[in-house]
Design brief:
Chain lengths: 578, 275
Amino acid sequence: MNNDSQASASDDGFSVAITGSGGSGAVTAGRILLEAAAQCGFQGLMTRSAGPQIRGGESAAMIRFSPDPVACMGDEYDLLVALDWLNIERFADEIPLSAKSLILCDPAAGEIPALLRSNGAEIREVPFKVFASGLPEGRLNMVALGAAAVVCGLELSAMEASVRQVLQGKGEQVVETALRALGLGYNHDHRPRITIPSPGRQDNRWSITGNQACGLGALLGGVRFVAAYPITPASEILEWLAPRLEKLGGSLLQAEDELASINMIIGASFGGVPSLTATSGPGLSLMVEGLGLALVSETPVTVINVMRGGPSTGIPTKSEQSDLNIALYGLHGDAPHLVLAPLSIRDAVFTTQWAVQLAEHLQTISLVLSDQSLGQSQAIIEAPPRCKQSLQRAVERSPGGDYRRYQLTQDNISAMTLPGTPGGMYTADGLEHNTRGTPSSMAADHREQLNKRLRKLEKYDFGDDWAEIEGEGEQCIITWGSSAGVVKEVARRLRQQGEEARVIALRLLAPLRRQRLRQALEGMRKILVVEQNHGGQLFHYLHAQGALPPSAQSLAQPGPLPLRPGRILRALEPENRR
Amino acid sequence: MAVPAPKAKNYKSDIKPVWCPGCGHFAVLAALTKAMAHLGLIKENVAVVSGIGCSSRLPAYIDSYGFHGIHGRALAAASGLKAARPDLTVIVAGGDGDGFSIGGNHFLHACRRNMDMTYIVMDNEVYGMTKGQASPTTRPTWSDSKMTPHGTGIPRFNPAAIALAAGAGFIARGYAGEPSELTRLLVEAIQHPGFAFVQVLSGCVTFRPDQRGWKELVHPFIDDLPTEDRTKAAQIIQADDGKATGVIYAVRFPVWQPENPKEVELSDLEEEFHR
C-alpha cells in the first residue's frame, strides 16, 4: 500500500478501468469520463470489454488519457473503479493492477475479492450505494464517476458538461439526478491521485469510434450504396452509415445474408455507384466467392472486415488480427487485389477513404482489415487527415463503334461503361473473357486478362502511404493495422531510455511494396514482426515475399488480450536478441 | 419519318449460344426478345442478370447490359443494381438449381422485398451444365443420375407455392413449347410493377429426353385467372399438376425501392465528432 504517493505527471497519461455487472452503467460512466478529459484538452482512448451475454452481462470501460496522442492502453491501470464485484474475475487478465494502483469501491458491495487484494493496490472506499439511494432514481455509477474524477484530477465543471452531453437524450430529469449524484461522489474525498496539468480547451479535437471513422472514410471515398448483414463487431459501421447515406442521397440495404450483401454491392457498383459492405470473419468467409466475381469482372467494391477472435464463431466480442491470411489468400485462382489496414482510429478515416478510391480507380476489390479493439474503441484525437488524392473510376460515357470493356491499355485499366450508355453494352462475367467481355477458355485470353489484372496493381504508384515509418537505429519493429499503436508506444519508451528503434507500420498489405520495405530495413541488425494472432501471419507472409532477412523474429500473440508495451519491450531485450 | 418498330432480332447479340440443339432455352430467348420488342424497351436501359447454369448464359445472348454472376446469386446482384439504378429495367434469368437450391434464400427474400424486376426461371428439373444431376424440382423417383441412383427420395420443391408464401405479387407459368403464350406472359411480367416471377417449363433434350412428352401434358389453367385472391391462388397452386400455364396471381403490393433526395453535404455530417 502506498497511500499518500502521487503518481508523477508523466507523459504516460492516466489509465482508468470502470467495471460493473450488466446495467450498472460502467460503459456510460466511461464515456462521460473520456468526454470530460476531452473538455480539459486531453487526448484519449476508451476500449470496451463485455461478457458474452446479450444483456445483463458484466462490462468494463478502459480509458487512458494524456496531453499527448494516446496510441494504446498502458501496461497497468492507475485506477480501477469497481461498481460491484460480480464476475470481476473475468476482467482480471484485461485490467492489470499493481501496488501503484488505486481501487475505488463501495463497502456495501461486499468483500474485495482476494484476487484484487493480492496486488497491493491502495483501496479507497466510497459509499456509492448510500449516496445514490438518497436520490430519486439515483444511479451509483454517477456517484462513482464523481469520486473517480477527483482521483483523475478532472474538474467538476468539465464532468458536468460531459454528463449533459452524453445523457442529453435521456431527458432533463435523468441529467439533473446524474449531476447531483456526480456532485456527491466528487465532494466526498478531495485527495487527487495525479496532477497532470490540464492542457486546457483545444481546437480541432474530435471524439470518434473506429467503426465511425471507417464509416466516414467510406463516405469520403464516395460510397453511396451499402448492402450488409448484421454481425458483431461490425454492425456499428452499418448503423452509423444507414441514416447518413440516406441524407446524402444514397442507401443501405439490409441483406438476407452475406452471400447476398457482397453480390448486391457488386450489382450496385456495376450500375456505377461506389459500393461497400462491412462484416467480420464469418461473413467475410461467406463473401469470398463474390469477391472473386468482382475481381474478375473488374467491378470495384470495398469490404471492411472488423476482425474478431477466430476461426469459426470464435470470440465474437473480442479482438484479434487473425484474418490476414484469408484476406491475402482466401480467393481461389490467381486473384491479385488490395488489402489495407488502418493503423489507428484516427487513421481509419484516411485508410478507408483511400481503400475505396483505390478500388474505384483500379477497378478491383479492396479489403480493409479493422478489428474489434479499433472499431469499438472511442478516441479523443486531433482532427483526422484525409486522402488528398481524388481517385475515381474511369467511366466511358460516349463509347465509339468498337467498345471493348476489357481493352488492354498502358496502365491496364479500361474505362467502363455504365448501364444506360448507348453503344457501350457488354455482359460482365465471372467467366474468363476476352477484351470484349465475351466468355473465353482460350489460353491466350486467360493469360492476357491475368496479366492485366495483376499489372494494373503492380504498376500503380501507391506513393508513400503504404506504411508509416518512424525512427532510426539498428532495431526495427514491423507491424500492421491496429497493433501500430502499441508498437509506437514501445518506440517512444525506448527513446525515453535513450535507445533508438525504427517502426514500420504497414497500411498497404497487398500488393506488398517489397522493394520499399527492404529499403526501409537496410542496416537493421534486429527485426521483430509484431502482430495479434497465433500463427505469425504477417511474419510468414513477409518471408514468403522475400521481404525479411532470415534473422527476423516473430512476436505473435493471439487475442483477446491486447498486446501490451511491456511484452514487446521484453522481446527486444538484449538476452532475447540473436 | 416514323421510327420503325423494334424487331426481336434487334435485341439479340452476335454471340452464339452454348445450348444443345433442341434446348427449350432457345425458345425462351426468342420469347424474351419478342417481349422486349413488343414493349419497345431501349436496349441500353435494360440489364439482364444471371447466376450459373445453362440458362444463366442468357445475358450474353441479349444485346443489352448484362451481368453473368456466380451460382445462385443472380437475384442478389439484381437487387443491388436495381436499388442503385431504379431507372433500369432489370430482368433476372436462371435455372431451377440456381434459383431454388443454391439461391433459394435469395428467392424467398426477393419475393418479399418486392423490388421492380422480372425473374425468369427456366425449369428443366435437372442440372444440365454439370451433366445431369437431380434438382429441387426433380421428381423423387428419377434415378438416371449416378449421384442419386435410387432417386432423391425427396418431394419436389413447388416454386409457385413458395413464391406465393414468400410474398410475390406476380406468379406465372409458361412453356417453352408455347412461344406466343410465353411472350405474352413475359410482357405482362415486365410490365408488372414489383417482383414478377415466371416459371418456364423449358425441357432439357440431353439429360431429360422424357421431357419431350411435356407437349402432351402441358395445358392452360382452367380457372378464371389471374386472381388477386391469395387464398384462391394457394388452392389452385396446391391442386395443380405443375403443367398448367398462365398468369396465376397478380396483385400490386408496395414496391420497395430506396430513393433518397440528397439533403446535406458530407461536411455537415462531420460536426457530430467535433469537440
